[in-house]
Amino acid sequence: MPMPQHFRAALADRPWRGRSSLVLAGLASLALVGALLPQSLRAVSAAPAMPRVVDVPNTPAFIKPPQGGERPARPGQTLSYESILRTQKPGRMQVQLANGRSFRLGGDAVLRLGRQRLDLQRGQIIAWVNPGTKGGAPLTIHTRVATASIVGTTVFIEASDTSLKIFSWEGEVACTTTDGQRKILRSGEQLAYENGTWAKSRLTTQEAAARRQKSILLNGFSAPMDTLPVLEKELGISTPLSAR
Fold it and tell me: How many CA atoms lie within 13 A of 183 on its CB side?
């Protein structure tokens, strides 16, 4: 914090010994002003951004913090890291992370919210990095058989005990499998795992449009999804307003 003008002027007119006492008095005054500020204002700059629930269009949807029992998810709820997020059909929720990252969870899903990555045990997730967001580590989603990393893109993942689908709605998704394979998905491409075998394919415009219209994670939320117009333009699809 810069020194007030009247203190600088007073210092210039005093000998060194007098200056020291005046400086101490000024510092004490500034400390008193800071102490009198409301605690919420003093903490604003120091408080880190925390994940929070922004939408729960359908229940059942639950949050289990690291300490404590499971409770219903509600909009505005702040989330601790290492919390377990769970949805049960037809439950869905949308979560906002730090640095322009968000995701939606649905189906019979279970996810652990880590500091560095999302651990999807089962269910469906669509995650995205908002357009224009720069910097930061990739958003990483870990599953039983592969890890997907995204930067400035939108990815859909569906996991079960026996299968996995990773689909890039737009942008580039880097996938690393547990057996050491590395595959890059681009807009409209899908990586599927079934019966121990990996297969990569590309959806046609018609297939992508049908998936866009039927998706439980792209439709029916009141909270916005900033990359939705981007992915529609990228894949050359459009959807009636009734499906949004």
Answer: 21
Q: What is the pLDDT of residues 192-228, one digit of tens each?
A: 999 999 999 999 999 999 999 999 999 999 999 999 9
User: Taking a C-beta distance cutoff of 8 angstroms, is the pair 125, 113 a contact?
Assistant: no
- Domain housing 110: 52-243
Q: In the numeric block, which tokens belong to residue 230? A: 């981007």
Q: How confident is the model at residue 24 (pLDDT cuts 50, 70, 90)?
A: very low
99, 134: one domain:
yes
Write the CATH number for 189: 2.60.120.1440
From residue 103, how far is each of 120, 155, 192 by CA, in Å? Answer: 12, 9, 21
* Residue 28 and residue 136 in one domain: no
**Interval 114-170: pLDDT, tens:** 998 999 999 999 999 987 766 678 899 999 999 999 988 999 999 999 999 999 999
Residues 31 and 64 in one domain: no
Give the whole-angstrom CA distance, residue 122 versus residue 157: 9
Domain count along the chain = 2
Residues 105 and 128 in one domain: yes
Please report where in the chains the tokens 């930061």 appear, as a residue.
136
- Residues 98, 19 within the same domain: no
* C-alpha distances out from residue 226 to 11, 96, 105, 141, Å: 54, 12, 16, 19
